[in-house]
Automatic annotation (TrEMBL):
Species, as recorded: Neoaquamicrobium sediminum
The protein's role, per its UniProt record: Exhibits a very high intrinsic GTPase hydrolysis rate. Involved in the addition of a carboxymethylaminomethyl (cmnm) group at the wobble position (U34) of certain tRNAs, forming tRNA-cmnm(5)s(2)U34.
Positions of the TrmE-type G domain: 222-368
Binding residues for Mg(2+): S236, T257
Name used for this protein in its record: tRNA modification GTPase MnmE
Residues annotated to bind K(+): N232, T251, I253, T256
Gene (name only): mnmE
Amino acid sequence: MSHQSLFRDTIFALSSGGLPSGVAVIRLSGPQTVAVLASMTAERIPPPRKAALRELVGDDGEPLDRAIVINFPGPASFTGDDCAELHVHGGKAVVAAVLEHLGRKDGLRAAEAGEFTRRAFLNGKLDLTSAEGLADLVAAETELQRRMALINAEGGQRDIYDGWRKRLLHARAMIEAELDFADEGDVPGSVAAEVWTDMSAMQQEIANHINGYHAAEIIRDGYRVVLLGAPNAGKSSLLNALARRDVAIVTEIAGTTRDLVEVSLDLDGLKVIVTDTAGLRDSSDTVERIGIERALRAAEEADLVLKLKDGSPDMPGFDLADLESKALSVGTKADIAPHRTGEFHHIVSVIDGAGLSALIEDIGRHAKGAVSAASGVLPSRLRQLELLRSCGHHLSLAAEVQQELELRAEELRLAGDALGRITGAIDVEDLLGVIFSEFCIGK
Ligand SMILES: Nc1nc2c(c(=O)[nH]1)N(C=O)[C@@H](CNc1ccc(C(=O)N[C@@H](CCC(=O)O)C(=O)O)cc1)CN2
Ligand SMILES: Nc1nc2c(ncn2[C@@H]2O[C@H](COP(=O)(O)OP(=O)(O)OP(=O)(O)O)[C@@H](O)[C@H]2O)c(=O)[nH]1
């Protein structure tokens, strides 16, 4: 082996998805990889990084499958350790037989969730934000999620945070120099003054970057739309029409929906979550009252509220004034209710489909509007946001402690450490369990 592995165990996992499938990819990483390949391929091991067809055999020489085999000797591999891939026929029994065979070998064990990527991180193959980007890329369901995740997986965030860290290091070096000059009674203050100009520019850049978090949250977790209205206003019917399937129960009985019912839509590449809620009314029923509280809380947290109303009189007793700035009024049951145009933003019927596509378009427009202000690389996780805030906080402290250069330098160091924690350049051992556990097995 041309390099030393940090890890004694050789790990393996099915890295492709559900079975059966046309082809299934089993990945291995660790010091035993080459020995395993030698024992399983009757013929010679394929040359590095070249796919080759090989018969795979068990210990008794019995064939397991005919497979495409790739050998990736470390360090030029995904994890940085010796790796291999077995592309076998994607049958359940085929995969089971190969995994069972691997599991019986000394020094081999099934990989934990995210363990390949964790090893890649610990071997310095990628930074923490790239690893998080990879997790998001594998989880991505919509076009915008895919784009954001790919940028981060390729080091978009890392480049920005490393850039800021370099500027902080430079600033500290300048301050050290100024302190040394001060000892000699000769203070070229103008040199260090440039530092503070740059630091305050950077503070602004970080503040702008932080402002993009909300947009990233919407892209990642979805734009939240909540349907509100009196019982029987037609909320569940509208939800089903938007989802194009029967998700929520629809009856003519007022008070049918008790809990929140969510559907996820893909509007133009953006994930939109629409939530059906319990109808708002004075109720003595405990379950219904809890449902109504949940409805109001969901509306408070929503990005957009659709207030539904059929032809019946106004719902009493609920002050929705606080929601007004993010609400659209929707007149429902247009086929039977004589709504006046001008009274509502939208008038719809789920019976004849009137107004539905205009409503969907408008929801899409609002969702796009919520993310369009943000562009470029965004902070995509709470973990990152908190460390960015900490960085900004120390920068502003550095600006405040006017005369005392040592204190200012110390605040700049703390600001840089916060950035280093985002990329994993420093002190993150305690975070790794949380970060990598959200990965799939085999990643
Ligand atoms: N079959 C297969 N497809 C795959 C992956 C994989 O591991 N196997 N990937 C897994 O995520 C993604 C591709 N990402 C990869 C990233 C790095 C390396 C790798 O071997 N890197 C080495 C050598 C680079 C080179 O020769 O250019 C290195 O970084 O040193 C492989 C795949 C998507 N498709
Ligand atoms: N004619 C007509 N009837 C509708 C329309 N939308 C809903 N309805 C009917 O109105 C009744 C109530 O509809 P739901 O969708 O269950 O109303 P809801 O607001 O979810 O009611 P709760 O769960 O009680 O809060 C049902 O009988 C539906 O068939 C519509 O566009 N046109």
